[in-house]
Amino acid sequence: MFSIIRRQGTLSIKKRKKIRKRIFFIIVLLFTFFLLFAGRFLVVDEAPKAADVIVVLSGGEGRLEKAYELYQSGYARKMIVSNGLADNLWESAIRLLPRKSVILERKADSTYESAVYVKKIMKKHKYHSALIVSSDYHMRRVKYNFSRVYKDSDTKLIYVASNTTYDPKAWWLSKHNVGITISEYIKIIGNTFGIYGNDAKRKLYQYIEVFFYE
């Protein structure tokens, strides 16, 4: 009888070990999947097509240059600069383009608010299509917020990324890219729960500094 109990106990231990191994394997698999695809998921870059207007969001190097490239290529003859007073975006835009071709949006202080105010401008000017330009790593959040704001609209939006030094295929190899990746996912989660704007950004950057730079 005791030998039977011992055998049953041994079997249960073996089963627990197998279960732990399987759980560990699943965790490693999920972690590997996250490493490989987390950065790639953030990048949205669609083929540009002719549109009524180009929308460029402030906040990153290369965005205006990409928007200007699209303008020069004839994809649109008008450009909206969202949060255009930040980073001298408006001044830079009117040095490149005729002033009458540039429309200033000055109220937004978040990606979501950019979508809201740009939609109002597009409605006012009767624009029905737009090329949305921002940094490559920012584009998933841009598309998420603009899609929410325009969900009941028949406006055609195409998302075109400006290239940066961000490496979506090996983002974990650089502290800078790790910070960007974590930042974007936290912001996407925050946006889902209605957290936007400068206060949220300041809190986020405080957390990033604590975890990655101290």
From TrEMBL:
It comes from the Bacteria. Residues 52-186 form the DUF218 domain. It holds the Pfam family DUF218. CDD domains: YdcF-like. InterPro entries: Cell_Envelope_Assoc (IPR051599), DUF218 (IPR003848), Rossmann-like_a/b/a_fold (IPR014729). This is YdcF family protein. The chain crosses the membrane at residues 23-43. Keywords: Membrane, Transmembrane, Transmembrane helix. The keyword Hydrolase does not apply. GO terms for cellular component: plasma membrane.
